[in-house]
Design a protein that fits this description.
The chain has 337 residues and is of the alpha/beta class. 34% of the residues lie in helices and 24% in strands. It has helices spanning 51-58, 86-92, 104-107, 114-126, 130-143, 149-152, 162-173, 192-209, 220-226, 244-249, 254-261, 301-305, 327-335, and strands at 7-20, 23-36, 40-44, 67-76, 79-80, 97-100, 180-184, 212-217, 229-234, 237-243, 311-314, 317-319. The strands form two sheets. Strands 6-7-8-3-9-10-12-11 form an eight-stranded mixed β-sheet, with helices on both faces. Strand 1 and strand 2 (23-36) form a beta hairpin. The two termini are 27 Å apart.
Length: 337
């Protein structure tokens, strides 16, 4: 999976819990992964599986209370971000790691012009004069393919369409030439045409400026064309971690396999889309054994009793399933393929 590239970000055994009156929510529970320079890693899974909390933990933006990073390491260019002071972390955010949040309308201040918000980020981190920062902001808006950027600089967020607001957030995230861009559901609530444009823009920027991207999404339709590596999460844990083609065509975990079978395909005619029965478990009261066992079509007694470890089944392909080694043959029996 590394292709010989240097590791830019390495997350080791990250644990982030939320302490609530109802109990402890293990939102991120012993998660590990790497992002190499120039790589695009996708975190996928259903809502509530821990994708966004993982990103917020990397950025040290988990609200405390009730959330707390209980343990682990987040190594970025040799430094553990969890050990830095808040002042040191502010220098990392924006300068080295940029982030696009889920909802651009709530991320942009409605009472300030869009261009001024981008300019402020440039001034804060790069120390440019107001005039220099304004020109840099317009340049970034053009880079993010916002048409008539100089005129739109003075517009307010409500005057931008959803797609243009997302482009403005991309411009802001790129304002200080970060090495890593964390994109949290960047195409949510956009129509499919605009989604494709946003993902194409991220792909182009990756090539042009050498960005590493950590893409968080539940839209499996966009992952194959953007990411090189996929991390599948379920109930706060990693259940499969491999190159994108391996996850799509040779899944070794029943949850990842089920997710891929639920994606509509043009080359297959189906009467109805396949779904995963049941619902994700409560992170306060997880079932014994494998968390996916109540919904799994391949469940055995051992699955209900023992939690499977995340192990390397093949080179670069990790799975947390007791039957990962022969899962493909089991899946073939179910599908008849």
């Amino acid at each position: 999976m590394d292709g010989g590239r240097d590791v830019l970000l390495e997350v080791r055994n990250l644990r982030t819990y939320f302490h609530t009156p109802a109990g402890v929510v293990r939102a991120v529970d012993d998660v590990s992964f790497r992002v190499h320079r120039g790589e695009a890693l996708a975190l996928v899974g259903e809502s509530g599986c821990g994708k966004t909390v993982t990103a917020l933990s990397v950025m040290r933006l988990v609200p405390d209370p009730p959330g707390k990073i209980e343990g682990g390491e987040v190594i970025f260019e040799g430094s553990d971000l969890l050990r830095l002071s808040e002042a040191e972390m502010r220098q990392i955010r924006g300068n080295n790691i940029g982030m696009i949040f889920q909802d651009p309308m709530t991320s942009l201040n409605p009472v300030f012009r869009v261009g001024d918000q981008i300019r402020e980020a440039v001034q804060l981190h790069l120390g440019l004069s107001r005039k220099e920062a304004k020109e840099r902001a317009i340049e970034l808006m053009e880079m993010a393919e916002i048409p008539q950027a100089r005129e739109r600089y003075r517009m307010y967020p409500h005057e931008f369409s959803g797609g243009m607001r997302q482009r403005a957030m991309i411009a802001m995230a790129l304002s200080c030439d970060p090495k890593l861009l964390i994109a949290d559901e960047p195409s949510t609530a956009l129509d499919v045409t605009i989604q494709a444009q946003i993902m194409e823009l991220l792909g182009r920027l990756r090539k042009e400026i050498g960005l590493s991207v950590m893409l968080i999404t539940h839209d499996l339709g966009v992952v194959a064309g953007v990411a090189e590596t996929v991390l599948v999460m379920y109930a706060g844990k990693v259940v499969e971690y491999a190159a994108v083609d391996e996850v799509y065509y040779r899944s070794k975990h029943p949850y990842a396999w089920s997710l891929m079978r639920s994606v509509p395909r043009l080359d297959e005619r189906k009467e109805r889309l396949l779904t995963i029965g049941g619902s994700p478990p409560s992170l306060i009261n997880l079932p014994p054994g494998c968390s996916f066992s109540p919904r799994c079509s391949f469940v055995q007694d051992i699955c209900r009793e023992q939690e499977p470890p995340l192990v390397e089944v093949e080179e670069g392909h990790l799975s947390a399933c007791h039957f990962a080694n022969d899962f493909e043959s089991r899946a073939a029996e179910v599908t008849g393929v």
